[in-house]
Amino acid sequence: MAKCVGRELVEARGMDVDSLINVLVERALAEMGNYYYFTLLRIHLLGVDGEALRRIIEQVREQDRHHFELLVPRIYELGGRLPETAEQESGTLGALRVLPVEADVPKILPILLQAAEASVKAYTNLCAMTIGKDNHTYNLALAIRQDEIQHQVRFLEMLGRGAAEPRLQTSAEILLSVAQLGAPPAVVRVGAGA
Ligand SMILES: [Fe+2]
């Protein structure tokens, strides 16, 4: 096996890199799976009462694709790889497969909220797994987690709960600020579903 400097650096700080790669691959596939279902949902909501939700879905869908693209390079830097084929359904939006012909926003929203909560929890766990051991992955997970909290807040707003939440930074803004500071933020904001 070729020497992998990225892996050695993280291993030297006590990280179980194989476990970390497994989690990162699982996350990357989940992001891609959600992107796929958001694409279906976006089309499903065209021309019906779900226009407001469709606009949110459009943004969340793009962010999940961006998350996939953020995670993949890190997997390979650590010496891992994506599976050649995805054998199992990934992501947390499989329930959207059985949508009624007519878009039913009150029925769809809880599925989306549940998926966002699961994502926040997964990235919270990834932050806990990497803090102090792998700053690069930690910063990545923290930034994505912030986006997932934002998704959760937007779905909650549509459900009429928690509308008073302030605007949160996007992952791109967090990664930029981390790069400028040269260190991970000291405080991890814990969201409602974490
Ligand atoms: Fe995501």
From the coordinates shown, what is the CATH architecture? Up-down Bundle
CATH class: Mainly Alpha
User: Number of helix segments?
Assistant: 6
User: Domains counted in the coordinates: how many?
Assistant: 1
SS elements, strand count = 0
What is the distance, rounded to the nearest whole angstrom, between the alpha carbons of the first and last residues?
38 Å
Structural class: mainly alpha
By CATH, the superfamily comes out as Ferritin, core subunit, four-helix bundle
What form results from the Cα inertia axes?
Answer: elongated
Mean residue pLDDT: 81
Low-confidence stretches: 162-167, 183-194
CATH topology: Ferritin
Tell me about the largest β-sheet.
none
Q: State the order of secondary-structure elements, H for helix, E for strand.
A: HHHHHH
Strand residue percentage: under 5%
| Helix content bin | 55-70%
Radius of gyration: 17 Å
Bound molecules: fe (ii) ion
